[in-house]
Write a sequence for this structure.
């Protein structure tokens, strides 16, 4: 727990609505205009954003989705398992970490529009990762998964949805 508290303090992390802790570390000065973005977005978006994101064995990332692709980068701690449900209902998962001989990947891209959740794999541990989004992240693009809504859309994934939703 001391390591977790030190990371939160040293990196100035705050609680994230999906779970875990975060701090934005980069927001590009350049923006993308509405005409270039199309109908999927309202208003301007920065070209890219990046955050530190800390998960613990007690603080998972609940199912959520954004419009943009999101790149996850592994930094330190326990590997994570990232759970995804595609728009057509296909479930997949990937391990992000640095044990390449065990099939872990140091980075992974979650396609825009996918529902996704993440968990730290080791008990009593933490996972420090980074997430990069382009076009840049805006909470207007963020949807936190509702358990009943997701269960009605994807009843075949009831176990994983129930595990990684809070409401």
């Amino acid at each position: 727990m001391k390591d977790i508290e030190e990371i939160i303090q040293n990196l100035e992390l705050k609680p994230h609505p999906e779970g875990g802790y975060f701090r934005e570390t980069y927001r590009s000065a350049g923006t993308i205009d509405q005409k270039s973005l199309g109908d999927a977005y309202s208003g301007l978006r920065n070209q890219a954003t990046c955050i530190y994101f800390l998960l613990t064995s007690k603080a998972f990332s609940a199912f959520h989705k954004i419009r943009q692709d999101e790149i996850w980068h592994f930094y330190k701690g326990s590997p994570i398992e990232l759970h995804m449900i595609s728009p057509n209902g296909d479930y997949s998962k990937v391990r992000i970490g640095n044990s390449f001989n065990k099939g872990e990947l140091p980075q992974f891209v979650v396609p825009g529009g996918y529902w996704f959740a993440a968990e730290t794999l080791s008990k009593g541990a933490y996972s420090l990762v980074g997430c990069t989004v382009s076009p840049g992240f805006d909470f207007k693009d963020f949807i936190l998964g509702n358990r009943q809504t997701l269960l009605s859309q994807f009843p075949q994934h009831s176990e994983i949805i129930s595990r990684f939703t809070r409401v």
User: Anything to note?
Assistant: The first strand starts at residue 14 and ends at 15.
